[in-house]
Amino acid sequence: MKHLPLFHDITQSRWLIVGGGIVAGRRAQLILSAGGQFDLVALAASDSIVAHCQQCDGVVSIRAWQPSDLNGDYQFVIAATDDAEVNRQIAEQCKSKHIAVNVATDASLCDFTFPATIDRDPLTIAVSSGTASPILARLLSERIDALVPAGYGELARLVKKFRPKVRAAIESGAQRKHFWEKVLLGGVAENVFSGKMEAAEQLLEETLRQPDEQLKHGEVYLIGAGPGDPDLLTFRAFRLLQQADVVLYDRLVSKNILQQVNQNAELVYVGKQRSHHSVPQPSINQRLLDFALNGKRVARLKGGDPFIFGRGGEEIELLAEHRIPFQVVPGITAASGCASYSGIPLTHRDHAQSVRFVTGQLQDGTVDLPWEDLVSDNQTLVIYMGLNGLPVIAKQLIAHGLSPDTPAALIEQGTTVSQKVYTASLSDLPSLIEKQTIAPPTLMIIGSVVSLHKTLHWFEPPTDNEDSAPSIGHR
Ligand code: SAH
Question: N or C: which end of the chain has fewer CB within 10 A?
């Protein structure tokens, strides 16, 4: 490590900025935001840097730099003129006077550099590439930025406020550490991240009053994993997967998504097959409860959205009964994911003003649906779990008045790299599908919006023979 990261209190330091362009302006803004004070010497200066300088009572001198400028008792100097020779001279003079210098255009002359920063005041994350590549440092910091909840600053302020109380209430250092770890990964933090500051404080107070009672239980996150593409996980889903001790998942959760789980977590398969459930629902509910009662942070990963044909409600009922803290993280449901990835808008001004999600599961060879409601015009129908029932569904819809020519699509393994899209008229779709080897999961979209697939499909150019041949699109 060539550069030691230090977080410097600059409220008492004096800075000199030489140069008045864009780079100087950025530095000026940073100094100002950290409560510093600077003077400015520049041949020409932007209005904003002049304003910044005046804001911190600095002196603005519009003229050429001269060595005597360094007599002003400065601790830091920034050389950001557009003349490399001038910058070099400034650096040389600074070194002889033991003043720390930063030269914006020449890393080799710098005593210190400005890292890419992520500001969650009072928390600050700084990323430096040494002097190798500031752009790489910035790209990395943008990735970290996306992962750190905006509420971390609030959380840090809350901790600061409670630290004296906690110190007074819990004597042992080890127990205090345990307390804070639980609090910072548990309901208190989650409340802060959701903007519920009052609830967070209340919970923290309660936890402090009865730490043993409050901290002995774990909690459950019911997480919607989206339809397959791991990029469709929400930030919150990703964050909770990183902190879970146990993850329960089923067949709809793709391998790529499981790779986002932290490596120390125990993975428990509670697979669900199309026609049978390998672990019965009540026993999944019970397992969630048991893990939580044993103090574990449990993530229950569900395909799509937990509250859309996901039995998510049932899984949390038992937890609520036992007062186990839980939260539900919405996911992108298969309808949205498959529609977007296959270029079929679910609603469209000219085609459909409403959309219905229905389950098309076969029971005793038939599908029980309110057919009259499903055949109205200007409506898109999305059918989950409908592959086996497709012939019955198509027949019933047509019998109840939907045109046999209504465009229909079957999307196989939507949003994954194996996605395929089959389109045909409603009357032809069942026979077309019968001839294919289809790998679940699949989703059907029925309605005139499906005709837009030809023009809006993401990767594939439209083909000439769309009417006769199925469009089999790969993502
Ligand atoms: N909670 C889930 C739905 C669970 S029901 C959600 O919100 O998406 C399971 C059905 O969802 C499957 O039978 C299939 O119809 C549909 N489904 C889920 N993922 C899918 C995918 N990647 N591609 C196509 N259909 C999918």
Answer: N
Burial zone of 43 (CB within 10 Å; 0-12 exposed, 13-18 middle, 19+ buried): middle
- Residue 382 structural domain: 335-474
CA angle 466, 386, 367 (to 5 degrees): 125
Rounded Cα distance, 453 and 460, in Å: 10
pLDDT for 475 beyond 80: no
Indicate which residue of 250, 302, 305, 420 is catalytic: 250
Q: Is residue 258 one of the residues assigned to a domain?
A: yes
> How far, in Å, is the centroid of ligand 1 from the Cα of 407?
21
Tokens of 203: 């919970």
Considering just the CA atoms, what is the radius of gyration of the chain in Å? 30
353 and 403 both lie in a single domain? yes
82 C-alpha to center of ligand 1: Å? 58
Task: Phi first, then psi: give them for residue 409, nearest 5 degrees.
Answer: -135, 145
Of 388, 397, 429, whose CA–CA distance to 410 is shortest? Answer: 429
Give, to the nearest 10 degrees, the angle between helix 235-243 and helix 134-147. Answer: 80
Indicate whether 28 and 94 sit together in one domain. Answer: yes
* 135 assigned to some structural domain: no
pLDDT in tens, 252-297: 898 889 998 998 999 999 986 554 556 888 899 999 999 999 989 9
Query: d(Cα 61, Cα 71) in Å, to the nearest integer?
Result: 15
Asked about 250 being catalytic, the answer comes back as: yes
- Best residue among 272, 309, 341, 415 to mutate for probing ligand 1, ranked by most atoms within 8 Å of CB: 309
pLDDT band at 210; cut points 50, 70, 90: confident
Place of tokens 């098309």: 360
Residue whose tokens read 């964050």: 239
Residues 220, 186 contacting (CB under 8 angstroms): no
Q: Are 352 and 310 part of one and the same domain?
A: no
Rounded to 5 degrees, φ, ψ at 169 are -85, -35
Band (pLDDT 50/70/90 cuts) for residue 114 is very high
Residue 357: burial class (beta carbons within 10 Å; 0-12, 13-18, 19+)? middle
Contacts for 173 with CB less than 8 Å, ≥ 6 apart: none
Nearest to 158 by CA among 91, 111, 208: 208
CA of 240 to the centre of ligand 1 (A): 22
Residue type, 189: A
Q: Where are the alpha helices (DSSP H) in 278-381?
A: 281-293, 312-321, 334-341, 371-374
pLDDT in tens, 409-418: 999 999 999 9
